[in-house]
Amino acid sequence: MDKVIPTAAEAVADIGDGSSLAVGGFGLSGVPNVLIQALFAQGARALRVVSNNCGVDGAGLGLLLAAGRIARVTGSYVGDNKEFARQYLGGELELELVPQGTLAERLRAGGCGIPGFFTPAGVGTQVADGGLPWRYAADGGVAVASPAKEVREFDGRAHVLERGITTDVALVRAARGDRHGNLVFRRAARNFNPLAAMAGRLTVAEVEELVEPGVLDPDEIHLPGVFVQRVVPLTAEQAADKGIERRTLAVAAPAAPALEARHG
């Protein structure tokens, strides 16, 4: 089955207002920027997003966020996005913070048809006990708080029940993919993209390099095409357009002072 869609605009055209989205990416690595930009142009609103982070100011999911198009976020890290903090603390946005490993497993579980699982992560904190502010009121009070979760003991250790996540749509980015939807991810882009792709009922993948079926060695495929319904090939320019989250510069040590030769 050929799953290639010529343009990102066509691939996201039927995503409606209020849709839930699982979006891949880890920091700025592996973010499906082309699909996000197409969704921004398409105009869908009140989106419920599940992603490790919500982009940065002006990039990735930050585009949708700044336009007021995201209503709820389930994620594990939002610390570098000032607009996100403003909306959340101002009561404009609902946020469910989840431990990063738990979020990864919730996405994987949903993709595998597992409705829930027990984990020790979060036991003894508000993650399990409830009370985390999901939404603030305009006056700064808590309008919606997280509920308490079931806790059970296994082998003498307490574990909290976490639910698997499935979403209406998943948007992901892969380094290579074929027309059948088999995908290969590069380095840190592999952290959340395969899991997000598994959780979506409809998964759209933008690929930096499109190859014909049979080119990819089965042993190098990170995500089989059964999880992917649409493949959007990127242009060379789109594939090369990658952001840098933080620039780290090495400062050279000052040169040792020259020794002046003295003659007696």
Task: Summarize the helix and strand pattern as letters.
Answer: HEHEHEHEHEHEEEEEEHEEH
**Number of DSSP helical runs:** 8
Uncertain stretches of 5 or more adjacent residues? none
Structural class: alpha/beta
Number of strands: 13
Global morphology: globular
Organism: Streptacidiphilus alkalitolerans
Protein name: CoA transferase subunit A
Family: Belongs to the 3-oxoacid CoA-transferase subunit A family.
InterPro entries: 3-oxoacid_CoA-transf_A, CoA_trans_fam_I, CoA_transf_BS, NagB/RpiA_transferase-like
If you had to describe this structure to a student in words, what would you say it looks like?
The mean pLDDT is about 95. Strands 1, 2, 3, 4, 10, 11, 12 and 13 form an 8-stranded mixed sheet that branches. The protein has helices at about 10, 35-40, 60-65, 80-90, 100-110, 125-130, 195-200, 235-240; strands at about 20-25, 45-50, 70-75, 95, 115-120, 135, 140-145, 150-155, 155-165, 165-180, 185, 200-210, 230-235. With about 260 residues, the protein is of the alpha/beta class. Helix 5 (about 100-110) crosses helix 7.
